[in-house]
């Protein structure tokens, strides 16, 4: 069975490969903007579904397409990827000293349009208090600019994290165990 990852994320690609999956990569151009009043879990699932469906429409019938979308939620605010360094600074100030949720929506579509699975995983991450110099230095590194919530737990921001409850890989961008559970019955032994 052919598996396609509907994501340009190098982190998702690496996680899926490390878990032993054989797959192809097709970037999706699906919209990643929450609707007004949309709950974070609903948004993450919808964005994952839209990515998977967009890629599946152009693939051979029967191909499996995996879509995923990760958001960071501080209070009621959904923090996607920062628009620029100033937005990254704002997000990091917002996360400083608090626990926040990281939600990844996951969708598996059988081409051309059959949704086989749609779910989400939530992990709680706590940051220590950050000072302005730390935030500025981290943003200047460029690392936070392409990541939801303006940080990568697997990189320089690891020193900000004091606690994690749930799946670490979910925070990186793909809840590997949950994805394996969804794909195993569809792919057989891989």
How would you sum up this structure, described in words?
By secondary structure, this protein is α/β, with parallel strands linked by helices. The protein has one domain (3-187): Maf protein, CATH 3.90.950.10. Helices cover 33% and strands 26% of the residues. The chain has six helices and seven strands.
The amount of beta strand, in percent, is 25-35%
Under the CATH scheme, the architecture is Alpha-Beta Complex
Rg (CA only): 17 Å
Distance between the termini: 10 Å
Oligomer type: single chain
CATH C-level? Alpha Beta
- Contiguous low-pLDDT stretches (5 residues minimum) are none
Major sheet? 7 strands, mixed
Task: Determine the structural class based on helices, strands and strand pairing.
Answer: alpha/beta
Number of helices: 6
The pLDDT mean sits at 95
Silhouette: elongated
Helix content: 25-40%
Question: How many strands in all?
Answer: 7
Order of helices and strands: EHEHEEHEEHEHH
Number of domains: 1
CATH topology: Maf protein
List the helices and strands and how they pair.
Layout: E1 3-5, H1 10-18, E2 24-25, H2 40-56, E3 64-74, E4 77-79, H3 85-95, E5 99-110, E6 114-127, H4 132-140, E7 161-165, H5 168-172, H6 176-187
Parallel strand pairs: 1-2, 1-3
Antiparallel strand pairs: 3-4, 3-5, 5-6, 6-7
Helix pairs in contact: 3-4
């Amino acid at each position: 069975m052919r598996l396609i990852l509907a994501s340009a994320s190098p982190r998702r690609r690496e996680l899926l490969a490390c878990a032993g999956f054989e797959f192809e990569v097709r970037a999706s151009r699906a919209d990643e903007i929450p609707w007004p009043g949309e709950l974070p879990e609903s948004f993450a699932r919808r964005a994952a579904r839209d990515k998977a469906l967009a890629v599946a429409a152009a693939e051979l019938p029967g191909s499996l397409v995996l879509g995923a979308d990760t958001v960071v939620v501080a209070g009621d605010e959904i923090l996607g990827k920062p628009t620029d360094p100033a937005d990254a600074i704002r997000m990091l100030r917002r996360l400083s000293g608090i626990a926040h949720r990281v939600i990844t929506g996951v969708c598996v579509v059988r081409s051309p349009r059959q949704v086989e699975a749609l779910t989400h995983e939530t992990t709680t991450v706590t940051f220590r208090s950050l000072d302005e110099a730390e935030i500025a230095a981290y943003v200047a590194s460029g690392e936070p600019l392409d990541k939801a919530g303006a940080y990568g737990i697997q990189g320089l921001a690891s020193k900000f994290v004091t606690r994690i409850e749930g799946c670490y890989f979910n925070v990186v961008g793909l809840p590997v165990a949950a994805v394996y559970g969804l794909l195993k019955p569809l792919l057989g032994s891989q």
